[in-house]
Specification:
The chain is of the alpha+beta class and about 290 residues long. It is built from eleven helices and nine strands.
Length: about 290
């Protein structure tokens, strides 16, 4: 961005939640100009508190509109898909569950792994919004009873690859990172299954960026978001240096991802994931953490 525009950028790196909470605490004293996050919930948390300036409509139009929030106050610049990693020596693709909701049923006991990650919490929030708190809690209790909590997505990937567990819930990019490290997708025993039919297990979660109302560099911040989402700018960086999905039409990942237009995620407002507190409460109540 600096090379393209001459605008210098000072970057502060931290966890999504840590930085979001700091900005919320600082309120109108916040010093940041732009907030960039992997998690739609953290972008939504700031948006829901009225801390973001509206994003230029032209910038919102740079990317696949399915992944921008209805508010238009932050813009999606990348995305990750929820998937199942499976080991064909343990289970065939045809034998995998048709829905992640089925995993609460007894027949799946001992066959899968999961991790209470940010994306898992986002999935729980989505379920609360669609099937209600009671049904979501029962599902979580089933996940707790039937699955193995490996704590980290990377651990799920490695356990499936090693044949220690038949399959696991995770984010797509963990497998593609391992494939790149091992010299190609054909070098791995495990495979990736993308769920279909708008199943909650097929959620595509947007990474977002927004401009704080307190920013004293509004014009420069808008230019940054425009560059970040431009097909010839930041989207090329995402496509060639990260395993996430770029979101500008016509830009494809260099990591051999299944094309975004071939995925079948549920349609929903990414901004609806802004409050994950109830999801965290239910995860605790179910005994997962």
């Amino acid at each position: 961005f600096t090379k393209a525009t001459g605008i210098k950028v000072e970057v502060r790196v931290g966890s999504d939640a840590e930085l979001a909470n700091q900005i919320i605490e600082e309120g109108d004293r916040a010093k940041a100009d732009v907030f960039i996050t992997e998690e739609p919930s953290q972008a939504g948390a700031l948006d829901g508190r009225g801390l973001f300036e509206a994003v230029d409509p032209g910038t919102l139009a740079h990317v696949d509109g399915r992944f921008n929030p209805a508010s238009g106050n932050w813009v999606a610049y990348a995305a990750r898909s929820r998937v199942i990693f499976y080991n064909p020596d343990k289970i065939s693709e045809a034998e995998l569950p048709q829905s992640i909701l089925d995993l609460a049923n007894p027949e799946w006991k001992g066959k899968f792994a999961y991790a209470p990650s940010g994306a898992f919490t986002a999935t729980v929030t989505y379920l609360i919004n669609t099937i209600g708190e009671d049904a979501t809690l029962e599902w979580l209790k089933g996940i707790k009873a039937n699955g193995e909590n490996l704590q980290k997505n990377g651990a799920i990937r490695d356990a499936v690859e090693a044949g220690q567990i038949s399959f696991g819930l995770s984010n797509h990019y963990y497998w593609y990172i391992l494939a790149q490290q091992q010299g190609g997708q054909d070098k791995l025993k495990s495979k990736v299954h993308y769920m279909s039919g708008g199943d909650p297990g097929a959620l595509v979660l947007a990474s977002g960026a927004g401009i704080l109302k307190t920013s004293t560099h509004q014009a420069e911040a808008q230019r940054f978001l425009a560059w970040l989402t431009d097909a010839d700018g930041g989207q090329q960086v995402i496509a060639t240096t990260t395993p996430q999905y770029p979101l500008a039409p016509g830009v494809t990942s260099s990591m051999g991802l299944r094309p975004l237009d071939q995925l079948d995620p549920p349609a929903f407002d990414q901004g609806s994931l802004q409050d994950v507190s109830k999801a965290r409460d239910l995860i605790i109540e179910a005994g997962i953490v």
